[in-house]
Design goal:
heterodimer, A: about 450 residues, alpha/beta, OB fold (Dihydrolipoamide Acetyltransferase, E2P), Rossmann fold, 6-stranded parallel sheet, 16 strands, B: alpha/beta, 2 domains, 7-stranded mixed sheet, 5-stranded mixed sheet, 14 strands, about 35% helix, AB_hydrolase_1 (chain A), Acetoin dehydrogenase dihydrolipoyllysine-residue acetyltransferase subunit (chain A), Single_hybrid_motif (chain A), lipoyl (chain A)
Chain lengths: ~450, ~325
């Protein structure tokens, strides 16, 4: 079930930053036909009708009527298949720019799902109290995966405490409040409702997903919701990427050490690793380090299994200065450029230009892929891996040749996907999620 | 220990300080023969005579200038301004003289006077006799502003204020004069600038002064019935402010309600909120809640006045809101 963004690129003029959502003509769960009016937005000049670009079902809406949406935002999505839960109407509080950066990480299933909504996100920013932020920072916990139980979905201390306790940890604060908070729950009508703090210890080890070069943790957004619910998932930005632009790395070991430090800081001793491309190489190097016990490995078009890499793609990625140029390079990444959401190149460019990430990436590329060669060899690391390992590669990969997979040892399962390029998680999310799930479960 | 009313405790403080220091003298409107509108100086003219307890004409501006010059020339005057509502008439002497002479003259003058006044609503005294203008006074650097809530603090802090070499504005409340409380015997002072924890709690901290401490304590009782453990901090002194006590309490409860009987906009509650964010931002689990008077005149009509003034129920609601 692929979801396609409803874009307002065409609705806005050149000189505006946002539009006002006036009216959804279709409710989530209802079918739509290509060309059918789906939503009306108010631009600077007039009310503009946005038509469906394809047949399908309206899956989600991210902006409600009366809400302002930035130009370039995804208003909602059209699904190829009828959504399972058609009744789940109503806009989700996730007004995200395209491509929607995914905030879901740890699924905090230990916390009461009564609050329902994912962590409150406004314009991509998590709403959390200063105390919750501090405690999460100290515990190395990612607030993105936590549901907020406070007003407007604000993450409060009790939510962090619940997430930590679900992880089997006590909040590391010398504060009596954690124990005091449940008292509030006993309050009679009209009083605040503290969430039920579940102290369920997670049965399964968490799954850590590592993205590829030039991407960030949002790379997993299509796959994450499709993974089995019993697994806690954690996405990290690699150094030089996403929120970690301030840090860089000298080589693949550096990347692995950095990620290993962060996993340890989260208090995780055992985990499943899923890595894409450079993230796959990092996962292998991390496994070789032996500092974190790895339960299973799922490698999507991983680096490190051969010298070749598409230097033009890497260079184009770090050198493009316009969305149009970048779009042409990004289309190299996938077998069918249509899977790239509209406005994707522009959003990637914007994100790369933020905080001077382009320069950081270029420097990293110089160290990792100097002269169009992968500067690291992880084949022997792969041969030493003794846990369930699955390699997934698109036969149409134009960035790293899928033939590298043939060097995998007999213990690793190799899946070659037809009609898929370098990014299986984006091009074939259902199958990729299924293969990840099979790896996780085969680890017992 | 003796059980005393708030007004009696103030009277005892004045009397003891006058006995101990001949440079202490009192003046103000109707404080002598009449003993003060709220009977704080009752009997003192009889005991100390008309030169040390002076009835004056009605000119707050002149009276405050008198206090400034009397203090500069070596005495320790205690001036009573009958209603805090008349404090604006005293502002030139406070803002342009008392608070800065020490600075302008490089510490060659001291300014040891006390301006006692009383403010606040709840007595049906109308828009011109019910205001708490503590924010306006606490805004002035170089002046101490204190507002005790108990008879013991009233006595101990008035004694400390009279001995202080800086100008001290001593804020009383018309609805506190008749409350009773245990007051330590003898020459006991309470330092200016130290808060008191009047009720321990774990879930939310309530900060207040003067009559609002009484409301905060009632609110804490209501909250206890709600299952919420509220800590009540009597700041006692608006300036200097005991920031340490505030931060310590918030580090424990992570939720703060600040209460002030004055207006909201640019008010003392706003100052407290900002102070909390300056010093304890990372301890906050919710925005600081302010409970104040709305930005309107205080009505004479009793039901309207009750509806406007901050009270225990409003403090309780604010505390519960921060815990949501």
């Amino acid at each position: 079930m692929a979801n396609h963004p409803i874009s307002i690129e065409s609705a806005g003029g050149e000189y505006m930053e946002s539009v006002l959502v006036l009216d959804w003509a279709v409710k989530p769960g209802e079918p739509v036909k290509a060309g059918q009016l789906i939503v009306t937005v108010e631009t600077a000049k007039a009310a503009t009708e946005v038509a469906a670009e394809r047949d399908g079902w309206l899956a989600e809406t991210f902006f409600s009527e009366g809400q302002e949406a930035p130009v370039g935002a995804v208003l909602g999505t059209i699904s190829d298949t009828k959504p399972a839960d058609a009744s789940a109407g109503g806009p989700k509080s996730r007004p995200l720019a395209a491509p929607a950066p995914v905030m879901a990480a740890a699924t905090a299933e230990g916390a009461s799902s009564e609050a329902g909504a994912p962590a409150a996100v406004a314009g991509g920013r998590v709403i959390a109290s200063p105390l919750a932020r501090r405690l999460a920072r100290e515990a190395g916990l990612d607030l993105c995966g936590i549901s907020g139980s406070g007003p407007r979905g604000r993450i409060k201390q009790r939510d962090v405490a619940a997430a930590l306790s679900a992880r089997g940890e006590q909040p590391a604060i010398a504060s009596p409040v954690a124990s005091a908070a449940p008292q509030v729950a006993s309050t009679a009508g009209g009083a605040p409702q503290a969430p039920v703090v579940s102290s369920v210890t997670r049965k399964a080890d968490p799954v850590i997903l590592l993205h590829g070069f030039g991407a960030d943790r949002s790379a997993w957004r299509q796959v994450l919701p499709l993974l089995p619910a019993e697994f806690e998932t954690i996405t990290l930005d690699l150094p030089g990427h996403g929120a970690e632009t301030g840090r860089s790395a000298q080589g693949i070991e550096d990347l692995a050490l950095d990620v290993s430090d962060r996993i340890e800081a989260l208090g995780i001793e055992r985990s499943h690793l899923v890595g894409h491309s450079l993230g796959g190489a990092t996962a292998l190097a991390l496994t070789a380090l032996g500092r974190v016990a790895v339960r299973s490995l799922t490698l999507l078009a991983p680096g490190g299994l051969g010298p070749e890499i598409n230097a033009g793609f890497i260079g184009g990625l770090t050198r493009s200065t316009t969305a149009e140029a970048l779009e042409r390079w990004l289309s190299v990444m996938v077998a069918d450029p249509n899977v790239l959401p509209q406005g994707y190149a522009r959003a990637v460019l914007r994100s790369m230009e933020r905080n001077g990430q382009k320069a950081v990436l270029a420097a990293l590329a110089e160290r990792l892929f100097a002269g169009g060669t992968q500067a690291f060899d992880l084949l022997s690391a792969l041969r030493r891996v003794s846990v369930p390992t699955r390699i997934v590669w698109g036969r149409s990969d134009r960035v790293i040749p899928h033939a590298h997979s043939l060097r995998a040892p007999g213990s690793a399962a190799v899946h070659l996907l037809d009609g898929v390029g370098h990014v299986p998680q984006m091009e074939a999310p259902e199958l990729t999620a299924r293969l990840i799930a099979e790896t996780l479960r085969s680890a017992g | 220990m003796a059980l005393m009313r708030y007004a009696e405790a103030l009277n005892a403080a004045l009397r003891e300080e006058m006995l101990a220091d001949p440079s202490v003298f009192l003046f103000g409107e109707d404080i002598g023969r009449y003993g003060g509108v709220f009977k704080v100086s009752k009997g003192l003219m009889e005991e100390f005579g008309e030169s040390r307890v002076r009835d004056t004409p009605i000119s707050e501006q002149a009276l405050t200038a008198m206090a400034v010059t009397a203090a500069m020339t070596g005495t320790r005057p205690v001036l009573e301004i009958m209603y805090a509502d008349f404090v604006p008439l005293t502002l030139d002497a406070l803002v342009n003289q008392a608070s800065i002479y020490n600075y302008i003259w490089n510490d060659q003058v001291k300014m040891p006077f006390v301006l006692r006044t009383q403010g606040g609503g709840g007595a049906g005294a109308g828009a011109q006799h019910s205001k708490a203008l503590d924010s306006m006074l606490a805004h002035i650097p170089g002046i101490k502003v204190v507002a005790p809530s108990t008879p013991a603090d009233a006595k101990g802090m008035l004694k400390a204020a009279i001995r202080d070499d800086q100008p001290v504005v001593f804020l009383e409340h018309k609805l506190l004069y008749n409350i009773r409380g245990e007051v330590p015997d003898g020459d006991v002072t309470v330092p200016l600038g130290k808060a008191a924890t009047v009720r321990d709690g774990n879930d939310v901290s309530i900060f207040a002064t003067s009559k609002m401490v009484v409301e905060a304590r009632k609110a804490a009782e209501l909250l206890a019935a709600d299952g919420v453990s509220a800590e009540v901090i009597d700041l006692r002194s608006l300036r200097p402010l005991d920031v340490n006590a505030i931060v310590t309490s918030i580090a424990k409860t992570h939720h703060a309600v600040v209460v002030n009987e004055g207006w909201r906009f640019c008010g003392y509650a706003a100052e407290l909120s900002a102070t909390i964010m300056d010093h304890a931002f990372d301890e906050l689990d919710a925005p600081v809640a302010r409970v104040t008077l709305p930005d309107m005149p205080i009505p004479y009509s009793e039901p309207l006045e009750v509806a406007m003034l901050p009270n225990a129920e409003k403090i309780r609601a604010a505390a519960l809101a921060t815990l949501k």
